[in-house]
Design a protein that fits this description.
By secondary structure, this protein is of the alpha/beta class. It has helices at 13-27, 34-40, 45-52, 60-69, 78-87, 94-100, 120-129, 135-148, 166-170, 176-189, 237-253, 257-270; strands at residues 105-110, 159-165, 195-200, 210-215, 221-226, 231-234. It folds into two domains: 13-87, lambda repressor-like DNA-binding domains (434 Repressor (Amino-terminal Domain), Orthogonal Bundle), CATH 1.10.260.40; 90-270, Endonuclease, Chain A (2-Layer Sandwich), CATH 3.30.870. The chain starts with 12 loop residues before the first helix and ends with a helix. Mean pLDDT is 86; it is low at 1-9.
Length: 273
């Protein structure tokens, strides 16, 4: 674990928050190591180190626990996390995308075709439909999304288990031609040994958002949930386990791999009409 380093509280909210945590911990005495605080907050020494260095701020729940354990006034850290979240609302997925590039396994349920499996035309149409920034910037967004897909071509790519809502395949994003090519792209992706795609039938209980679970190189787990304009990333074990249960239930309701492929082929033909 990296040793402590001098932080510049004025440089960023992340570093200021990290400095507050570090100073509060050190003020409690020599026995209050990062590992000791980690045990008391149901976290890990590595996580506390990242927070103190200003690299990876806590979510609100961990911030609340840190306030209690470090005997800080209520709101000291939670308010900083809230301000940071509001300030960087357009970058809410930044940390998830960083972790995704290192993941050894990805389990995902999505209300749209997942970014790692999108064609360029589908990505563009989806972004335009969602008003994802200035139209002049969309080409750059599409390029970055396609660049992410390079992780599937690594010598040891991540294992990818994906459950896609059937409505995502029937919705005419970009028109029939775009959707037909997108579904054909999914069928081609299924031929990769590390990619598994299942379809959640329309008759299943609707879900309010998408969820992705990552397994990282050292075995850590992470979860990312996303709604219309907000997202949340967490590595807190209890929250990750909660979302794992959600994913497991969705996968149980999904069609099997073979049946999913048959349905995708049938829907692709419907987009020919």
């Amino acid at each position: 674990m990296p040793g402590p380093q001098d932080l510049e509280p004025g440089e960023s909210i992340e570093q200021y928050l990290g400095n507050v945590v570090r100073e509060a911990r050190l003020a409690l005495g020599r026995d209050w190591t990062q590992a000791y605080v980690a045990v008391k907050t149901f976290s890990s020494g590595t996580r506390i180190s990242e927070i103190e260095r200003g690299e990876d701020p806590p979510d609100r729940e961990l911030a609340r626990r840190l306030e209690i354990v470090l005997r800080l006034p209520p709101g000291t850290l939670v308010n900083l996390v809230r301000i940071r979240t509001e300030r960087y609302v357009r970058d809410y997925a930044k940390l998830y995308l960083q972790r995704e590039s290192d993941a050894t396994a990805i389990h995902e349920f999505s209300l749209v075709v997942p970014g790692l499996l999108q064609t360029a035309d589908y990505a563009r149409a989806a972004m335009e439909a969602g008003l994802a920034g200035d139209p002049g910037q969309i080409s750059a967004f599409v390029s970055r999304r396609l660049e992410r897909q390079a992780i599937l071509d690594r010598p040891e790519p991540p294992w990818m288990m994906t459950v896609i809502d059937e409505a995502a395949l029937r919705r005419g994003i970009g028109g029939d031609h775009v959707m037909r090519e997108q579904i054909e792209h999914l069928l081609t992706a299924c031929e990769r040994p590390q990619v598994n795609i299942q379809v959640l039938p329309m008759k299943s209980t609707p879900v309010a958002g998408s969820v992705a679970l990552l397994t990282l190189p050292k075995g850590q787990r992470a979860a990312y949930t996303e709604g219309f304009s907000t997202g949340n990333y967490t590595e807190e074990p209890a929250r990750v386990m909660r979302f794992q249960r959600v994913y497991d239930l969705l996968q149980q309701d999904a069609l099997g791999v073979r049946a999913s492929r048959e349905l995708m082929r049938a829907i692709a033909k419907e987009h020919d009409d």
